Amino acid sequence: MRAPTRIILEVCFLRKSGLSQHEELVNALIRCAQTQTEQELKLPSISRNRTIERNSSFFPIHNAAIYSFTKEMHALLYFQDLTGIQITNIIDPPFKQNVHKKVSQLLSLDVDLEIVSDASLEESVKDVDTIILSRISAYETLTQQDYMSRILKRFIDCGKNIYSLEYLDAALYPKIFEMAKEKNCFIRHPMLSYDDLCQSSFYRDMYGHLGNETPVVGVFGTGPSQGKFSVQLMLRRLFKAKGYIVNNYGTETYCELFGFEGYYPLEMDLSVKFPQQEMLPFIQGDIRRLEIVNHPDIIIVGGQSGTIPHSYALKSFEYTLPTLTFLMATLPHAYILTINSQDEIEYIRDTIHVLEGLGKGKIIAIACSKCGKKLKAESSIVYNYRLSKQEFNDLKTKINHEFGLPMFDIFEAEDAKALFDLVVSFFSR
Questions:
Q1: Is residue 404 within 8 Å of residue 363, measured between CB atoms?
Q2: Residue 334, SS3?
Q3: Phi, then psi, of 25 in degrees rounded to 5
Q4: pLDDT tens, residue by residue, 47-88
Q5: Cα–Cα distance between 216 and 350 in angstroms, integer?
Q6: Can you tell me the distance from the alpha carbon of 83 to that of 245, in angstroms, rounded to the nearest whole number?
Q7: Residue 26 pLDDT more than 80?
Q8: Which pairs count as long-range contacts for 243-246, CB under 8 Å and 24+ apart, including other chains?
Q9: Which candidate, 234, 211, 212, 423, places its Cα nearest to that of 334?
Q10: For residue range 355-391, what is the model confidence (pLDDT) as tens digits?
Q11: Are 221 and 305 in contact (CB under 8 A)?
Q12: Within 10 Å of residue 321's Cβ, how many Cβ atoms?
């Protein structure tokens, strides 16, 4: 019997049994619903989408190789304790400058892995069960080849499972998916289907979209590539270490690798198989699912890219709309704002006003890494550089003077711990 039908019948039975007062009926309805949702919710599938049906469900990954060393892959190395995945090899196309460098040269990590060329791909992956892919299609423009298809075929020939951070489906690569089926290999790109929307709608319709007790902290930013996802992961790690029941709701396609309890891929429209106008109610219902089913002590959510546009040119304006929708769907009680070291003070101020005005929560801290960007005047090329300790301290002083907020570099252990303590203190008042 479908869950809503069962609950309605039980409440009707209770009504006939003498529960005539409105409050008693509401409480009876809630008890019936909780009894049902404590079990695994079984809703009939309404997805008849070949893309969804051919996409593998999530499968265990034990030993993996990374193909294409991008910023998304850095998190898999920084937070291996959250994934349980042993990264045994990192492979890059031969034309990338990372080949033959060690991870310790590129990241602040004591990892001795050397990045190898895909010329020796078959040898590099012989001891792994899964290949994790990132941004492969970007190389197709550079090489003028069907790069993704060629790489997928090589991995499937080796009998390896594929987990792709970028969009990948059976309609695009039917022969590859047939090969994978013959070799009993899994191919997965995280997607949301109408079945997910149906489940979310059930929780939203049954319980409403706003909880009253679970603290929600949101990580939003002034731009891309600021460490928003790293802040979420660091907080997850610290809350778990202290014994809290923490749930994360992310916006990256690979949130599930880190154990996130929910996600909506903001910047990959193809990964969502229901209309975009359903985004806000879907997220509202999915957040309620976490509250009702998991009973977390805290929920951590995180946006993508910037929160407000630098200008009102069409592209810039559209780019921030999904984050604003995500903000209104999650309504955090407290915010951590990530910034770039070169951001203008007025732009940071505008972002704070929008977060606190539209979302109604309070900014409690600012996060900024020591990685900055500068422009070479002679070539107009943007390059990365690392702020000195003095430069970073000067920026902290400036931020505190302008906004009365502390600033942290979450890649510093002491700063990460201080930020965690600040979040706990905020919700303990």
A1: no
A2: strand
A3: -65, -40
A4: 557 788 889 999 999 999 999 998 889 999 999 999 999 999
A5: 22
A6: 17
A7: no
A8: 244/297, 244/298, 245/294, 245/295, 245/296, 245/297, 245/298, 246/296, 246/297, 246/298, 246/299, 246/300
A9: 423
A10: 999 988 999 999 998 887 766 666 556 667 788 899 9
A11: yes
A12: 13
Q: Please provide residue 339's backbone torsions phi and psi, each rounded to the nearest 5 degrees.
A: -135, 165
How would you class 368 by CB atoms within 10 Å of its CB: exposed for 0-12, middle for 13-18, buried for 19 or more? buried
Q: What is the distance between the alpha carbons of residues 378 and 375, in angstroms, rounded to a whole number?
A: 9
The tens digit of pLDDT for each residue in 301-355 reads: 999 888 988 877 656 556 688 999 999 999 999 999 999 999 999 999 999 999 9
User: Do 139 and 155 contact (CB within 8 A), yes or no?
Assistant: no
Answer for the pair 352, 364: CB distance below 8 angstroms, yes or no: no
Residue 183 and residue 129: Cα distance in Å, rounded? 13
Q: Environment class of residue 144 by beta-carbon count within 10 Å: exposed (0-12), middle (13-18) or buried (19+)?
A: exposed
Q: How many CB atoms lie within 10 A of CB 195?
A: 17
Question: DSSP string covering 132-199, please?
Answer: EE-STTHHHHHHTS-HHHHHHHHHHHTT-EEEESS---TTT-HHHHHHHHHTT--EE---B-HHHHHH
Give the three-state DSSP class for 68: coil
**Which tokens hold the place of 250?**
């992310």
Task: Please tell me the distance from the alpha carbon of residue 274 to that of residue 392, in angstroms, as a whole number.
Answer: 44
At 302 the three-state DSSP class reads strand
Say how far apart CA 71 and CA 137 lie, in whole Å.
15
In angstroms, what is the C-alpha Rg of the chain? 23
Residue among 189, 206, 187 at smallest CA distance from 43: 206
SS (H, E, C) 341-372: CCCCHHHHHHHHHHHHHHCCCEEEEEECCCEE
pTM of the model: 0.87
Name the pLDDT band for 110 (thresholds 50, 70, 90).
Answer: confident
Question: Which DSSP helix (H) or strand (E) runs through 66?
Answer: strand 63-67
The encoded tokens of residue 29 equal: 């309805």
Backbone torsions φ then ψ of 71, nearest 5 degrees: -60, -30
pLDDT above 90: residue 24 = no
Cross-strand partners of 371: 386
Q: Answer whether 128's CB lies under 8 Å from 86's CB.
A: no
| Helix/strand/coil for 319 | helix
